[in-house]
Amino acid sequence: MHTMWKGSISFGLVNIPIKLHTATEDKDIKLRTLHKKCHSPVKYEKVCSVCEEELNPDDIVKAYEYTKGKFVVLEDDELENLRKENEEKAVEIMDFVSIEEIDPIYYNRSYFMSPNEGGTKAYSLLRKALEQSQKVGIAKIIIRAKEQLALVRVYENTLVMETIHFPDEVRNSVDVPNVPVEDKVTEKELETAIMLINQLTTTFEPEKYTDEYRTALLELIESKRTGKETVTAKEKQPAANVTDLMAALQASIDRTKPTATEKPKKETTKRKKTGTKVKKQA
After folding, report:
1. Which of 76, 86, 118, 152 is the most buried (most CB within 10 A)?
2. Cβ neighbours for 157, distance < 8 A, ≥ 6 positions apart
3. Handedness of CA 116, 120, 122, 125 (dihedral sign)
4. Domain segments of the chain: what residues?
């Protein structure tokens, strides 16, 4: 399993060298966009909005727009130094709380935690302590240049770090439009709804839920592939060097022009002789 972060996590005086591994994966089917005319992939280029020039990575800098059209430019080395300063710090569990107190709206991404060299015993200690106390740890960590709030919990037999949103990243529910303030339902309607919920209540078994759309899309793709309903992108033809061609044509024209020291050649034309020939008299 790929390691995407190395460091250590501590609670009290106990320090645990750990590695983080992504616990979930995106199974979305990636579709390419093609030019309808020739079925070639569409290329997205980075172009300056003013100069209209295509940009290379070296031509691009990062900046923060503090007001419309006004920016603070941040150099790559400044961002890198700031990231290293924070990433090299040990992740400290600041508090322990009951997981029931954390609403699922705060959850972001999940990472498996494995012990790094020398951290096996401390890893087991934290896992056992969390299990018996039925608590989760709250910590902060820098991942991909962003400080994340996270909780540490036990999943099956593995410690999991669950990144969660900061409170100011969760929008206020009172801003949601058209939410009724009062429940205008009858007692009979409520009883019927609760009866239906009870009838559909079961044990959560994630294996029985499948992505039906993804399955159908894969079947459609496979049926088109086996049925030879495929297209092939055209190879890009080398563009003619218009600049060199024009230069060659101009050079050819210039070679035919007389220089300043040369005199233009006189046009020679044969004139037809006119009149009659006079014979000499004897």
Report:
1. 152
2. 127
3. positive
4. 5-31+40-171, 188-224
**Predicted structure pTM score:** 0.69
Task: Give the DSSP per-residue string, 158-191.
Answer: EEEEEEE--GGGSPPGGGSTT--SS----HHHHH
Q: How buried is residue 102: exposed, middle or buried, by Cβ count under 10 Å (0-12/13-18/19+)?
A: middle
Residue 145 CA to residue 142 CA, distance in Å, equals 6
Q: Which of 24, 11, 33, 217 is nearest to 110 (CA)?
A: 24
**Region 164-188: what's the mean pLDDT?**
92
**What is the end-to-end Cα distance of the chain in Å, rounded?**
128
Residue 273 in this model has a pLDDT that exceeds 70 = no
HSE-CB at 230 with a 13 A cutoff on CA atoms is 9
Which region holds residue 231: left if phi is over 0, alpha if psi is between -120 and 50, else beta? beta
Residue with tokens 């050819």: 252
Q: How far is C-alpha 236 from the geometric centre of its chain's CA atoms?
A: 26
CA 144 to CA 151: how far, in whole Å? Answer: 17
Segment 69-77 shows an average pLDDT of 89
What single-letter amino acid sits at 79?
A: L
Instruction: Write down the mean pLDDT value for the chain.
Output: 84
